Fold Multicopper oxidase family protein.
Amino acid sequence: MLGRRGFLKVTAVGAVAGVTGACSTRAGETPAVDRTGAPAVVVTMTPAEADVDLGGLAVRTWTYTGTVPATEIRLRKGALLDATVTNRLPQETTVHWHGLAIPNDMDGVPVLTQPAIAPGDTFRYRFTVPDAGTYYLHSHVGTQLDRGMYGPLIVEDPDDGSDYDDELVIVLDDWIDGTGTDPDAVFANLRRTGMKPMASGGPPLSPTLPLGEDGGDVTYPYFLVNGRTTRDPQRRDYRAGQRIRLRIVNAGADTAFRVGVPGVPLSITHTDGYPVVPQRADSVILGMGERADAVVTITGSVPVVAAPEGKDGFAMMSLRVDAKPAATDVPAFVASLRAGAPVNTSTLTPLPDVVLPQRNPDTTVDLKLAGPLAGYTWPINGALYDPPNGGIELARGQRVRLRYVNTSMMFHPMHLHGHTFQVQGPAGPGPRKDTVLVPPRETVTVDFDTDNPGRWIVHCHNDYHLNGGMATFVEYRG
Ligand SMILES: [Cu+2]
């Protein structure tokens, strides 16, 4: 097993592009050189139907690289990513590079930033990655995110001062595709039947119920860690005393997860790629699209467990020491996760060098979140997403305050493309993030600078809410 130092050394000589699967260096093409002087990381992705084994569960689904999740892309801050995507799906598609503040025409949002890639067509994404951190890529078309159309994207910074022995990417997902139905059928059914009646009040939010009672709109038969069910979870071997940096990604479509390791505190060091003052926690809750990095020190075999918020079941993988099975009673630990008070990443304290300079907002934009209305629609400010109509005009060089005003009885993880925002905490600046949980009936305020011109979608990262219209966009020129 390579330690962190060994891994970075391998990365530095450009081995990243040699990952297995459908990502590979293309022969006969001279790679471009990025500003670090290293060759570009060249990948090819071929979205297509595939038969996938999800750990004791065989499904036919849609993937980027024949695997779920897609083959990891890993590169250094400042490196050039050169990704050629050839669509073999029966439907158009794109790739969105979630959380990266890259040029607008590389953002992968149909209509706003590019025409979607038609079946049989090829699109080349080419950009330098500006910031280190834990990111992921996914389709921004229809309900494809709730198939297998996602994968981790890790940007390393060898000089970031992090201290750990090894790292482990943990991609969480809620799974229904190929189990007798598919996400398009699920969405059509939501549209036809509308929604379950909402409780008029319900219990108030509390530290142990931070998102309220309503966990989501879809009942999933499976929850996955790194593409595997609990029938045959992934196992990784470690030595006692090793400090493991968990890079946790919620790639789910309709499910928030509470994540914890029995008997082992998390030291949360980053959210959405950006560093925070390390926060000790028993568990962390992540909405769809959110990420957290947490260091754990393991002394014996333990599972990493993710409990879906407001839903039955769980996801897990195993960290093993001396090849021993963990002694944990996992269902009992899931119950303790549910009874506990998970850390919401929006309450973390940013490191000083990622706090935006003090400035009063030049403009404030309220986004009123509502729904579900008849036909399963989720409007923002009374309107459904209708690009290229309905954009919010901004000017370059401004400090913009967004207020996500949730009038609904359900939580919404709100995601802004092309920027990171500073969550406005009760006692000063909160963390830098690109996706933030907005609990039912609450308002969350975030500030960002208009320093990356284009048309940028702002949307709920519940894939069914997005398909139900819960998006708008901001635009400004360079
Ligand atoms: Cu939503």
